[in-house]
Each structure stands twice: as structure tokens, then as C-alpha cells.
């Protein structure tokens, strides 16, 4: 089992812990140390795991030091949380990248069995691929959400890298990818062929401007997500505080924390990865705060998945010019869902009726005879 190959947290990350107040995170989470060994997994809710697999990374020559993140994270104060967290240490690189994939998949499979959510920190964005394979072993349909400036497709069928892992997921058999959503893409980083493929497969995407202008519009996307991957090349240079390691346009620090909080709130998210990390002191602090916000979101989960609309939900039927759409609103969380009905569902991935997360604005739009784009793409994927 690859969990046994995890390396303990380096001693330098623990230096100064005794000088910190008793209330900080470092004194309230289980730590994999050389003296204590691997923490007991039973009862854990969230596990932090460091990755050093940068052979396919944009930052292959400047690897991120995860211990710098730990020093910042351990010093933060937790909220009034009931979550049980552990830092399980770091996964050493395999002899090949495929060996690392195998280890990540094994770890993901074991933790999913125990209902523990791992946060993988570091490495390249293609680490999403072995996490997708976990769902193949569970024979479970999967939604992947990527916060990224580009789509990560490629015309090179066999090459897996930070630029082509999505192509491998699409081609892998059995194919259990239900939907892929990109948040924050920038058109000038996306080839025309990639955009055509997104449209052909009816995948969803929200451009950078849409994310920045209305970050709350991304919440339903995370609510339907099983795997969330963040490629930190999506950040603007202001967020990294280093023009050499950031970009003129990108997601700012406040927005990226909001996105990780939405990922934490989602009742469905099983894996989260934060990859392609630039090495700057500001990144250490921002990464620590992103993980903090994910944990805060986790503690605010509503436990509304799978959705049981027969209790605690209000049903709204909207008659459009050519059809009737059915919406449900949770009385507890005030969140909205939209019903999809497939009358010819045989041999399709989805059953006859299912729900997708949406916003109140989608409901209002439907009352004005406008079909929500998420509904359109989801219906096309069903047929």
C-alpha cells in the first residue's frame, strides 16, 4: 500500500512549533513525524499529502518547497471546526512518472474507501489523471473541475503532461468522465482545436472575466464536482507578488480562496489537488490560506448529496415556449437544482431523471424563456 511509502514531515517544518500558541493549526492536527509514525487514519476527515513529481511540470526546474507551506499553515488559527485533519507527509517520486501515478492512485483509492478527502499539494497538474482512475475502479461516473488558464488537451494521444492529461482521460477505457469544467480559462492560452473539442463534447467553461466578475456563479460547478484540480499558473502576478512567476492577467488571491472554499462546501468533492506552484514567499502564505478556506468550507457542508427532493425542497415548474423545466430549491441551504429528464435513456450514461446544480439566476432566466447553458450542455451529453 503506497500510504506506507509516505515520508514523514521534515524536522525543519516542525522547528519553532513549541513557540507558537497552543491554538494554532499545527497543534490541532495529526502529523506524520519520524518519531510518531503515520497517524491513525480511522476517523480522519481530511488528509494533506505533499507531492514532488515535477517531471511534467511547467516549473520542472524550480520545484516548490512544500515545507515552506507547512510553516505558514501550521501557524494559522483554525475556526470553530469539528473537522479532524492530518498531514500525512510527502510522497517520494517513483522511478518513472507512471510509478508516481500508480502510488497516487493507490493512496486515493484507499482514502476514498475510508471517506477521507486528500488534498494533494505540489507536483504537476497531470496528477489529476490517477485520481480519475480511482473512480474507474469504483465504476463511478466522475465530474472533473479544473481551475486553469488553459484546457490541457493535446493532439498527442500517448503523451501525458501538464498540457495533455485531459486527452488521456477522454481516451481512457472504460470512459466514466461525465463532465469536465474549466474555470478561469484565457482565450489566448487555448488553441482553436481545443475550443472546438470542448464544444463537441459539450463540456463547460467559464472564462477568467466571468469568474472574476461573479465568483458566486462557480458554486454550482463545485457542487457537482468529484475531483477539483487547481493549476496555479492561473494566478495573476499580483497574487504571487512576483512579476517573473505570475502573469499579467489571472485570478487574484481573494478569488482563489473563494474557489477553494466552494470546493470545501461541496458535499460531493472527494479529491482536491493544488499543483504547478511558483516558489515565492507570497505563494507560501496564499497556499496556506487556500487550504484553510477549503477546511472552513468542509465544516459548512450541508450533506445534501445525493439530493432527496421529496423532503425539505420546494419544487418550481417553469413553462417555456417549447418545454417545461423543473427546479428545486433547498429550504435548508437555499441552493437550487435543475432537473434533467431523458425519456430515451437506454444505453446512455445518465438514468431517466437526474439533477444538476444551478443558481437562482438560472431559474429567473428560465422564467424569461431563456434556457440555462448548463442545462443545454448536460442534455447534449445525455444523448
Radius of gyration: 21 Å
Average pLDDT level? 91
The total number of structural domains is 2
Give the strand content: 15-25%
Q: How would you sum up this structure in a few lines?
A:
This protein is α/β, with parallel strands linked by helices. The chain is 31% helix and 20% strand. The strands form two sheets. A nine-stranded parallel sheet has the order 1-3-2-4-9-8-5-6-7. Strands 10-11-12-13 form a four-stranded antiparallel sheet.
Question: If you had to describe this structure to a student in words, what would you say it looks like?
Answer:
By secondary structure, the protein is α/β, with parallel strands linked by helices. It has helices spanning 11-14, 66-74, 97-113, 128-137, 165-171, 192-200, 208-213, 219-223, 237-240, 253-265, 281-298, 360-367, 373-382, and strands at 30-31, 46-51, 85-91, 117-122, 142-147, 177-185, 204-207, 227-231, 271-275, 313-319, 324-330, 336-341, 353-358. It folds into two domains: 2-298, Ureohydrolase domain (Arginase, Chain A, 3-Layer(aba) Sandwich), CATH 3.40.800.10; 313-382, no CATH class. Helix 2 (66-74) packs across helix 11 and helix 10 (253-265) runs parallel beside helix 11.
Task: Please outline the helices and strands.
Elements: H1 11-14, E1 30-31, E2 46-51, H2 66-74, E3 85-91, H3 97-113, E4 117-122, H4 128-137, E5 142-147, H5 165-171, E6 177-185, H6 192-200, E7 204-207, H7 208-213, H8 219-223, E8 227-231, H9 237-240, H10 253-265, E9 271-275, H11 281-298, E10 313-319, E11 324-330, E12 336-341, E13 353-358, H12 360-367, H13 373-382
Parallel strand pairs: 1-3, 2-3, 2-4, 4-9, 5-6, 5-8, 6-7, 8-9
Antiparallel strand pairs: 10-11, 11-12, 12-13
Helix pairs in contact: 2-11, 3-4, 4-5, 10-11
Amino acid at each position: 500500500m503506497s500510504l506506507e511509502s509516505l515520508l514523514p514531515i521534515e524536522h525543519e517544518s516542525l522547528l519553532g512549533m513549541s513557540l507558537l500558541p497552543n491554538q494554532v493549526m499545527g497543534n490541532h492536527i495529526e502529523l506524520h513525524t519520524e518519531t510518531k509514525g503515520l497517524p491513525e487514519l480511522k476517523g480522519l476527515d481530511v488528509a494533506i499529502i505533499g507531492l514532488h513529481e515535477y517531471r511534467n511540470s511547467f516549473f520542472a526546474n524550480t520545484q516548490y518547497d512544500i515545507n515552506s507551506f507547512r510553516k505558514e499553515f501550521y501557524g494559522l488559527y483554525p475556526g470553530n471546526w469539528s473537522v479532524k485533519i492530518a498531514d500525512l507527509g510527502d510522497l517520494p517520486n517513483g522511478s518513472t512518472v507512471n510509478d508516481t501515478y500508480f502510488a497516487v492512485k493507490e493512496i486515493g483509492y484507499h482514502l476514498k474507501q475510508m471517506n477521507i478527502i486528500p488534498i494533494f499539494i505540489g507536483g504537476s497538474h497531470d496528477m489529476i489523471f490517477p485520481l480519475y482512475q480511482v473512480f474507474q475502479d469504483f465504476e463511478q461516473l466522475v465530474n472533473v473541475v479544473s481551475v486553469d488558464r488553459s484546457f490541457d488537451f493535446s493532439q498527442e494521444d500517448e503523451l501525458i503532461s501538464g498540457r495533455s492529461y485531459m486527452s488521456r482521460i477522454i481516451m481512457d477505457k472504460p470512459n466514466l468522465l461525465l463532465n469536465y469544467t474549466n474555470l478561469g480559462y484565457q482565450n489566448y492560452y487555448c488553441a482553436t482545436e481545443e475550443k472546438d473539442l470542448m464544444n463537441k463534447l459539450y463540456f463547460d467553461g467559464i472564462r477568467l472575466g466571468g469568474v472574476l466578475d461573479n465568483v458566486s456563479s462557480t458554486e454550482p460547478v463545485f457542487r457537482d464536482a468529484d475531483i477539483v484540480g487547481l493549476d496555479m499558473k492561473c494566478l495573476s502576478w499580483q497574487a504571487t507578488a512576483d512579476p517573473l512567476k505570475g502573469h499579467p492577467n489571472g485570478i487574484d488571491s481573494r478569488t482563489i480562496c473563494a474557489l477553494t472554499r466552494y470546493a470545501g462546501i461541496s458535499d460531493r468533492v472527494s479529491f482536491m489537488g493544488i499543483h504547478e506552484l511558483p516558489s515565492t514567499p507570497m505563494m507560501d502564505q496564499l497556499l496556506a490560506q487556500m487550504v484553510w478556506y477549503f477546511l472552513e468550507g468542509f465544516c459548512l457542508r450541508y450533506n445534501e448529496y445525493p439530493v432527496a427532493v421529496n423532503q425539505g425542497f420546494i419544487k418550481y415548474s417553469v413553462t417555456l415556449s417549447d418545454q417545461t423545466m423543473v427546479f428545486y430549491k433547498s429550504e435548508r441551504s437555499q441552493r437550487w437544482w435543475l432537473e434533467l429528464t431523458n425519456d430515451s435513456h437506454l444505453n446512455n450514461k445518465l438514468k431517466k431523471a437526474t439533477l444538476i446544480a444551478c443558481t437562482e439566476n438560472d431559474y429567473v432566466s428560465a422564467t424569461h424563456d431563456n434556457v440555462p447553458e448548463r442545462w443545454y450542455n448536460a442534455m447534449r451529453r445525455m444523448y
